[in-house]
Amino acid sequence: MIERLAELVNRDPAIVRWGRRMNDTFMVALGDDQYLLTVREGKLEVEKGPFTQRSWRFAIRAKREAWEKFWQKTPAPGWHDLFALLRRGDVAFEGDQRVLMAYMMYLKLVLAAPRKA
Amino acid sequence: MKLEPIVGRYVQMGGCRLYFEEAGQGIPLICLHTAGSDGRQYRAVLNDSAITRNFRVIAFDMPWHGKSSPPAGWQNEDYRLTTESYTKLVMDVIQTLGLERPVVMGCSIGGRVVLELALRHPRELRALIGLQSGAFVERYYDPSWLDHPEVHGGRACGAVAYGLMSPLSPREHVWETVWHYMQGGPGIFTGDLYFYQIDGDIRARIGEIDTSVCPLYLLTGEYDYSASPRDTEAVVARVKGAKFTVMKGLGHFPMSENPEAFLGYLRPVLEEISRG
Fold it and tell me: Rounded to the nearest 10 degrees, how much is the dihedral formed by the CA atoms of B143, B148, B151, B152?
């Protein structure tokens, strides 16, 4: 799913507009698998790890099974939002929380994009 | 073109210009909006002729919210909602508008204060309706980020509200609900959450609610993770006689995110109240 994220986001101006001012790299972890997502004015590039000495602004980590439930076309209650995962303890936000919160609307739309695939 | 039957007015009370909207005639029904939002959340209830035939529906914006002013000197203090200030506000509105034994319906923080009103003022109220009622929510994120000069408050508050809604709710109404959140003043959502997450912990006292004096109806959307059906079940387990319904496919803002589905749950409750 996440391999297709750049394509799904970059062709959708309704998502890109929410990240128009964002120029940063963040990590998404699916269990032990790491991905670096680089945003340039709302457009996304996805690289698959493992990485050596790469910097990121913030990381969003969850188990692979949690992401799979999150990415269901119609997710079940409690699996439908990043903060829903946060309340149940199934996601961790690390790093610069200010930037994470500043772009939360964009991040929620980006990370939910696979539901439409 | 459709001219809605809703009328908006201001009332000066408690050092603030308080804005409220109303429609209909009959039993007064006060509607309490969620943290960081305003009375527009109840637009569908105010526009529903099946309800306004028998009820005078009133939705006010809390001070600091919507079109209501903050008190003079607001620039010198942090806004913080407490159990005392919220309970007093609701009873002051009832008294100022001269409402006799109204029904009070509140969502989220409003769903919490309804439990407080059940404890303190059961004889002055005809019935209480709690939407997304829980006795307490532990902090699972840091709301100070919603009130930070380097984070756009409107965007961040909107993002928090967005996720609390159901993926099944119509997008038009979901994004209208987000818009209300994006219009909130700086620090107001966070100030309301002080009541929701800290001061308004009512767990120790809910067992004292007597529903034989004032009926209590609880309606909770299944997609809410802030006040989840399980949180409301914990209330029901301790409040004898509370009537609980899980609203399928709805989230934390039922009246605003999916008005049509919500009205399907609300109308029978109001019919029962009007018969009682």
Answer: 90
